[in-house]
Design brief:
By secondary structure, the chain is α/β, with parallel strands linked by helices. It is about 35% helix and about 25% strand.
Length: about 290
């Protein structure tokens, strides 16, 4: 699979119940990390990795996510009148960042079903999937690292991270044969196994490069864990028919779908801002 990866699928149909009441009316994808919505970090990573079109999988009540990346003539006019040139440029860049297509997932049937919803928009070419809950601070970007692995190996690629054995029940876990530094040929994938049943401690993180052959597999994949169509189950089938690799990416990953993970990301990204880093360090010293 050495074709250029042009399209990226971002599932954004989840209800965000872990962040209630904040997400009662505000989509979880728009919750900020410092001053930027979580999903903007994901889209920026996609664009920096060569993605030309983002396919956003949405649900009822998620129109604000699309609006964030759309043209806002009224806001632009206000910023122009107030002579706030830097902010005006930032707002305009948002709407010009990438071509975006929205596809509605009518009912919550799992990640596998969300990816399947993108079938018509993706067509018959390899594509990326980026989950909005996983923020990865890396240079080059996590997805760009994976694109390079796909170019070298010629197959699908899944991002991996080692986790404590006690946390395997929170992730999809792989078994694989190491073929080069940080790269594994995957032979087995298990969705959220108990520690004593996990084939390794290599966990699947929310970045994928997949061939279009995944779509007919997803179409035939029955509901699995939690009664949902699991992408992990479809990937197990895919791995039996063509090469599928796991890659231990370089970078810091934050689970922005978890309250503590979101707090960690806010602190980490704030510390990268020169205008607030020292003040934040002093504040942390003071409160601890």
């Amino acid at each position: 699979m050495q074709t250029k990866i042009r399209k990226g699928v971002i599932p954004a149909a989840g209800a965000g119940t872990r962040f209630l009441p904040a997400t009662k009316v505000v989509p979880k994808e728009l919750l900020p990390i410092v001053d930027k919505p979580t999903i903007q970090y994901i889209v920026e990573e996609a664009v920096a990795s060569g993605i030309e079109q983002v396919i956003l999988i949405t649900a009822r009540g998620k129109g604000a996510v699309e609006d964030h990346f759309g043209v806002s003539a009224e806001l632009e006019e206000v910023l122009k009148r107030q002579k706030k040139g830097d902010l005006l440029r930032m707002v305009k860049e948002l709407s010009q960042m990438v071509t975006m297509v929205a596809v509605r997932q009518e009912e919550p049937r799992g990640l596998g079903h969300a990816v399947l919803c993108a079938r018509e928009a993706v067509g018959e070419e390899p594509f990326a999937v980026l989950l909005g809950d996983d923020l990865v601070d890396a240079e080059p970007p996590c997805l760009a690292q994976m694109v390079e692995v796909s170019r070298q190996k010629g197959g699908g690629v899944i991002a991996l991270q080692r986790v404590p054995a006690s946390e395997t029940h929170l992730y999809g876990i792989i078994r694989g044969e190491q073929v080069s530094e940080g790269v594994y040929r995957i032979t087995e994938l298990v969705e959220k196994p108990a520690p004593d049943q996990a084939p390794s401690n290599l966990a699947i993180i929310g970045r994928y490069i997949l061939p279009p052959e995944i779509f007919p597999i997803l179409e035939k994949t029955p509901p699995g864990k939690g009664g949902e169509i699991q992408l992990t189950d479809a990937l197990q089938t895919l791995a039996r028919t063509m090469p599928l690799y796991g890659y231990e990416f370089a970078g810091d990953r934050y689970d922005a779908g978890d309250k503590f993970g979101s707090l960690q990301a806010n602190i980490a990204f704030a510390l990268k801002r020169p205008e607030m880093a020292e003040r934040l360090k002093e504040f942390i010293k003071k409160v601890i």
